[in-house]
Amino acid sequence: MTAPAARPEVLALRRSEIRILANAGMGRSDVLPFWFGESDLPTPLFIREAAAEAALAGKTFYTHNLGRPDLRAALSAYLTRLHGLAIGAERIAVTNSGVSALMIAAQTVIGPGDRVVAVAPVWPNVVEIPRVLSATVETVALEPAQGRWTLDLDQLMRALTPGTRALFLNSPNNPTGWTLPAEDRAPILAHCRRHGIWIIADDVYERLSYLGDCAPSFLELADAGDRVISTNSFSKAWRMTGWRMGWLTLPPSLVEPVGVLLEYNTSCAPDFIQSGAVAALEQGEPDIRALRDELMASRDQVVAGLRALPGFEAPTPDGGMYAFFRIEGRGDSMALAQDLIERAGLGLAPGSAVGPEGRGWLRWCFAARPEKNAQGLERLGRYLAA
Ligand SMILES: Cc1ncc(COP(=O)(O)O)c(C=O)c1O
Predict the structure, then answer these.
(1) Whether pTM exceeds 0.85
(2) Considering 122, 132, 150, 229, which has the largest number of Cβ atoms within 10 A of its Cβ?
């Protein structure tokens, strides 16, 4: 008798190479980890207190499928302030994380056999989620040029053929830090309007932009009736990775069906966790600014440190929390990442984890204290000299 098997689409999903590597090095006191995308400081205290108070006050019940009305109102006020145009609460759905927001967005508009296009290299979930839904994914590659990552707009337009269902675009991008130039938004939107293509913008790093207060957003250009969905998260800007809270900004016509899908996925976000999210939105701006300042300093520290090493190419990230770099003559990033754990005590993510476009590259999450980044750079230098 053959063993019971999962759907072929599920069996074909990529295993996370970052996890394979981290599992090998986790818990080893001799390894300095930079493999995951999170700050090494906990969530700001006032957010933790707001959630703790809510839990103690008994906010432990189911809530509305789309999120608590006060959280949706706080998100509407936040987004309206951030983007300088009214984004009403009736366009917002609260999700249990940024990754859940992506999955719900995909379930809402993508079906079996659909063709989707993604700008890559990119965090694996962005390309694997459409595959869970039996869609096919084609990628358009970012390229390093003159010390920065760039997107060839003509190449993207050629890939967005009539009949394409959706474009997945993550900006600022994990892993490269590439940020969609503001002037590229209008031609992409016009092209997608012409061909009825959905734009699913993964905006989780929009506040971690080193070019301004917020990275250029499609929400600022699109009408409420456009096929534009923004997915977002509390994880990065408010240091809330473990809370699993995110949201979607949708055309109004999608909100009701998204509520139905939420019912069948998670039903609702946890009540007291939503209290923490309201506090984050209402009082979190100084902390976001402090985080961005810290990250900008550590970006400069790590990128300069890498560039000082012989044979290193380290384009400048304009957003996010990662340096994505390569070393001349070291093309197998998984083997190199494993060797760095064994022989240098340094835990980096292999670029191949983010798809074929990342082969030969390594990712360093620089959201760490300066001393830790400095120690990591020192270990890398010593390893190369040995
Ligand atoms: C590009 C991108 N999108 C979405 C997420 C999801 O974040 P979360 O599920 O923690 O909200 C991440 C997390 O690393 C990410 O890098």
Answers:
(1) yes
(2) 229
